[in-house]
């Protein structure tokens, strides 16, 4: 691809062009892809309905742009390097040719199992190359994939299956994670007890553990591809056909199915990958995310592979067999670009620099951060000890809904500043609005982060509920996409993300709706009411603090807290387990019965001297009782 920005003046020039004439800008970027039929119109949009269409009526298949487009000159180049959980197990390399063959075989197998264009397919699988193969095979035949993070519970999985009425689940027997072997298939079995749309389950053998296989429904991956051809004619897709659904938390209880479409997502993920990370032919790029999150979709699978990059996938965890594992992998595979989350950096920082000492890390050129604000201390540690002071940090701000990175330095081009995402990517027009919707122009301002012009990889709808999409993202500030984040633009025009301004908490870079956690807590039979807030946590960024009103009869406080944690674990998954639970006599409420979370947040943070006016509360006395119980 030839759209690479290499200098700061080049960035400024590209940015200006992208804003002055977005259609011309994006059509030039899109021209480097392979289309069977070109678009009639680059973009059509209004943020009222909302309706956003990019590259209208263009026909193509995203996998031809990943596979066929690269085979001729790069067939032997590694596409995926897979590093297993256990360092003694050999790693696996799949060249572009091999990836092509595996995707085609699996695509043919899925078709043979009755999957057709438009069908929804759930992928609930650990970090193995087959996860990427399954995603691409779906895209190849026009099926819509919805990857569910394999740490989610049976209940979360069945909710997602039911919401999108999926026909197939692709999964594994189990999962290796650090020193643990984790059940995967049995979670699927449990989820399928409360769903009725699934016809087939394809099971990859990974751990070899004993599992149940249901006759007529469950088939092994290795059996299903047996005898399948390596030739598959890609389904012709419209640019606006659905590529995938990815569920994410919002401020209300039910996860939203964020919908991304084929054309714009392809153009933007490739463009942003190439520029942000400054990938050069022959480099090895590694993003430590899980494919179950948007980061894994856009920057392990689609973005890198669209650029013909070598993308590394890691099955394990940063601390197994020891806290030097990330660095061992960087040296072993001579990683050039390394992309991780602040929570991982902070967790490793806690071990000091000892675990880094045996490693050279001299192949690294760019190091990245994503998922949550990176605090200055972690930024400096990452910069000095991992990047050895010579690798630019790309602090990339974006969301499941944005599909790709919107605000970030371009590595080596944009001067960085600790904990700043710096400047918008070309084509991205951020604005800061005050709570009344007035745009705050100029520098040194702070407010709600909105985007005023569409970009190719933005969400199109929330699956099966377009009104929810409108309400959530396009109704708070008329005519704008609202991100839910607070932001500051400093005196240099640099953006610093301040965190969520809605009821979403960010735990270790994982988004969690407070209402979602509350609903799970309330499922415990002894719980009367609960309120959940975030509070600063040294490693996780934010922790989950739950205030719970309970019927204590027959339980000790400790028992009850353990049971509540287990309830949340069962309903959502281990990532949503509250870090702190406080049993309270009541919750502070307004006269209209709304819980005053502002007060609960302050108490959780220990800022009890600045609670503000509590006299308007229905039950001001409860605040004192909560403060007393908190310490
Ligand atoms: O609050 C922002 C935070 O993560 C949210 C999006 O979460 P999710 O959809 O799970 O996607 C995470 C990976 C793209 C945002 O609304 N966030 C993401 N990146 C950053 C960030 N906060 C600060 N700095 C970042 N670089």
From TrEMBL:
<dbReference type="Pfam" id="PF16177">
    <property type="entry name" value="ACAS_N"/>
</dbReference>
<dbReference type="GO" id="GO:0005524">
    <property type="term" value="F:ATP binding"/>
</dbReference>
<dbReference type="InterPro" id="IPR020845">
    <property type="entry name" value="AMP-binding_CS"/>
</dbReference>
<dbReference type="Pfam" id="PF00501">
    <property type="entry name" value="AMP-binding"/>
</dbReference>
<dbReference type="InterPro" id="IPR000873">
    <property type="entry name" value="AMP-dep_synth/lig_dom"/>
</dbReference>
<keyword id="KW-0436">Ligase</keyword>
<feature type="domain" description="AMP-binding enzyme C-terminal">
    <location>
        <begin position="516"/>
        <end position="594"/>
    </location>
</feature>
<dbReference type="InterPro" id="IPR025110">
    <property type="entry name" value="AMP-bd_C"/>
</dbReference>
<dbReference type="GO" id="GO:0016208">
    <property type="term" value="F:AMP binding"/>
</dbReference>
<keyword id="KW-0547">Nucleotide-binding</keyword>
<dbReference type="Pfam" id="PF13193">
    <property type="entry name" value="AMP-binding_C"/>
</dbReference>
<dbReference type="InterPro" id="IPR011904">
    <property type="entry name" value="Ac_CoA_lig"/>
</dbReference>
<protein>
    <recommendedName>
        <fullName>Acetate--CoA ligase</fullName>
        <ecNumber>6.2.1.1</ecNumber>
    </recommendedName>
</protein>
<feature type="domain" description="Acetyl-coenzyme A synthetase N-terminal">
    <location>
        <begin position="15"/>
        <end position="65"/>
    </location>
</feature>
<keyword id="KW-0007">Acetylation</keyword>
<dbReference type="GO" id="GO:0003987">
    <property type="term" value="F:acetate-CoA ligase activity"/>
</dbReference>
<dbReference type="InterPro" id="IPR045851">
    <property type="entry name" value="AMP-bd_C_sf"/>
</dbReference>
<keyword id="KW-0067">ATP-binding</keyword>
<feature type="domain" description="AMP-dependent synthetase/ligase">
    <location>
        <begin position="75"/>
        <end position="455"/>
    </location>
</feature>
<dbReference type="GO" id="GO:0019427">
    <property type="term" value="P:acetyl-CoA biosynthetic process from acetate"/>
</dbReference>
<comment type="similarity">
    <text>Belongs to the ATP-dependent AMP-binding enzyme family.</text>
</comment>
<dbReference type="InterPro" id="IPR032387">
    <property type="entry name" value="ACAS_N"/>
</dbReference>
<dbReference type="InterPro" id="IPR042099">
    <property type="entry name" value="ANL_N_sf"/>
</dbReference>
């Amino acid at each position: 691809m030839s759209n690479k920005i290499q200098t700061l003046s080049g960035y400024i020039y590209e940015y200006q062009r992208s804003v002055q004439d977005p259609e011309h800008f994006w059509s030039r970027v899109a021209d480097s892809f392979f289309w069977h039929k070109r678009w009639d119109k680059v973009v059509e949009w209004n943020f009222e309905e909302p309706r956003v269409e990019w590259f209208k009526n263009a026909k193509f298949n995203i996998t031809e742009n990943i596979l066929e487009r690269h085979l001729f000159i790069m067939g032997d180049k590694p596409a995926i390097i897979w590093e297993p959980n256990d360092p003694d197990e050999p790693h696996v390399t799949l060249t572009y040719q091999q990836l092509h063959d595996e995707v085609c075989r699996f695509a043919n197998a899925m078709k043979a199992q009755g999957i057709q264009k438009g069908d929804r397919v759930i992928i609930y699988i650990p970090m193995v190359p087959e996860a990427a193969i399954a995603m691409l095979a779906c895209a190849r035949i026009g099926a819509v994939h919805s990857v569910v993070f394999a740490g989610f519970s049976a209940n979360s999985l069945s909710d997602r299956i039911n919401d999108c009425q999926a026909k197939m689940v692709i999964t594994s027997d189990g999962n290796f994670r650090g020193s643990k072997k984790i059940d995967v298939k049995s979670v699927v079995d449990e989820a399928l007890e409360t769903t009725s749309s699934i016809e087939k389950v394809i099971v990859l053998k990974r751990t070899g553990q004993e599992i149940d296989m249901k006759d007529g429904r469950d088939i092994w991956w290795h059996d299903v591809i047996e005898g399948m051809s390596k030739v598959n004619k890609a389904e012709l897709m419209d640019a606006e056909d659905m590529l995938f659904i990815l569920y994410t938390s919002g401020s209300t209880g039910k996860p939203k199915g964020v919908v991304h479409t084929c054309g714009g997502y392809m153009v933007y993920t490739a463009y942003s990958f190439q520029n942000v990370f400054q990938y050069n032919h022959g480099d090895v790029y590694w993003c430590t995310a899980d494919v179950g999150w948007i980061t894994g979709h856009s920057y392990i699978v689609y973005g890198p592979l669209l650029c013909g990059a070598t993308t590394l996938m890691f099955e394990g965890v940063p601390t197994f067999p020891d806290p030097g594992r990330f660095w061992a992998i960087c040296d072993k595979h001579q990683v050039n670009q390394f992309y991780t989350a602040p929570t991982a950096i902070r967790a490793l920082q806690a071990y000091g620099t000892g675990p880094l000492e045996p490693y050279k890390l001299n192949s690294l050129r760019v190091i990245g951060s994503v998922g949550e604000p990176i605090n200055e201390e972690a930024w400096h540690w990452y910069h000095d000890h991992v990047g050895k002071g010579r690798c630019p940090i790309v602090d990339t701000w974006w969301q499941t809904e944005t599909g790709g990175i919107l605000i970030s330095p371009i590595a080596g081009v944009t001067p960085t500043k600790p904990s700043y995402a710096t400047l918008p990517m070309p084509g991205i027009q951020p604005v800061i609005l005050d709570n009344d919707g007035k745009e705050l122009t100029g520098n040194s301002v702070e407010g709600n982060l909105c985007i005023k012009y569409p970009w190719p990889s933005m969400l199109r709808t929330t699956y099966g509920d377009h009104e929810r999409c409108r309400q959530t993202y396009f109704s708070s500030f008329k005519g704008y996409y609202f991100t839910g984040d607070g932001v500051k633009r400093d005196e240099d025009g640099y953006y610093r993300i301040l965190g969520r301004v809605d009821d979403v908490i960010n735990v270790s870079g994982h988004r969690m709706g407070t209402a979602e956690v509350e609903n799970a807590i309330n499922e415990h039979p002894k719980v009367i009411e609960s309120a959940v807030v975030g509070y600063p946590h040294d490693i996780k960024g934010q922790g989950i603090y739950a205030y719970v009103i309970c019927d204590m009869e027959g339980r000790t406080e400790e028992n009850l807290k353990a049971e509540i944690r287990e309830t949340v674990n069962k309903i959502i998954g281990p990532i949503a387990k509250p870090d702190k639970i406080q049993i309270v006599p009541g919750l502070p409420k307004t006269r209209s019965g709304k819980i005053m979370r502002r007060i609960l947040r302050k108490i959780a943070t220990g800022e009890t001297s600045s609670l503000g006016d509590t006299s308007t509360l229905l039950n001001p006395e409860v605040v004192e009782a909560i403060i007393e119980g908190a310490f």
